[in-house]
Amino acid sequence: MIKENINPERLPEHIAIIMDGNGRWAKEKGKYRIFGHENGVKAVREVSEGCAELGVKYLTLYAFSTENWNRPKIEVNALMTLLVKTIKKETGTLMKNGIKLEAIGDKTTLPKDCRKELEEAIEVTKNNTKMTLILALSYSAKWDIVNATRDIVKRAIDGKISLDDVNEKLINNTLTTHKYPHPELMIRTSGEHRISNFLLWEIAYSELYFTNVLWPDFRKEHLREAIIDYQKRERRFGKTSEQLA
Ligand code: FPP
User: Fold this and answer.
1) pTM tops 0.85
2) Domains of the chain, residue spans
3) Relative to the CA of 25, which ligand 1 atom is closest?
4) In the chain, N or C terminus with fewer CB closer than 10 Å?
5) Which strands form 99-104's sheet, in the order they lie side by side?
6) Of 5, 7, 20, 217, catalytic
7) Is 197 a catalytic residue?
């Protein structure tokens, strides 16, 4: 798929990706799972560059879920080390491409060095404006919704808001994702057809795209295929086709 097949007028402003299949990719090659994660970094670079080149404004990557803490300790540690190394190594590329790095998730649960690298990269890239790359780290949608609910209840107890103030807008603005438009397109690789606790509120009207490609094999051409597929869809938001015409 070439870039020219994409209609720049109908580009998703925000793409969210569930990067899946690293473990299976490594297993197919008779290697340890971490080898799959290591090779997944190339795909991260490809989609980040690919999105920036096309003019996509926000890219959210599900890098580590709340539930991923339950994986064997050796894999969790290796993933954290890889994250630290990658963030450190790629800050220059982010600067070169005008990409601002941000993160959603429970940062307090991350190892100190991981948090430090992340915070440094966020600080260094904060004035970049071409695209925002959001890493979902120790993130789950239910975690975010629970925290938002606690925050709202606390404000109500403190008398700062009343029952009538609780509406979609308030909930939306209390989630950690409030700064970003909701993703128009969500991609999951590796042939699994699940959302796995990712951006549940935000994908209410997202177009979902599933591909059998395993994450370490995912390249710009696959990203373009997903966007072209998205551009063929009619987004009705509950209305009829006739109403849209
Ligand atoms: C899912 O594959 C992948 C992950 C849980 C980790 C994703 C992490 C990376 C690509 C590393 C670097 C990322 C950044 C953002 C710097 P899986 O392990 O669930 O694969 P499986 O389903 O085949 O077992």
Assistant:
1) yes
2) 3-140+182-232
3) 23
4) C
5) 99-104, 131-139, 58-65, 14-18, 185-188, 207-210
6) 20
7) no
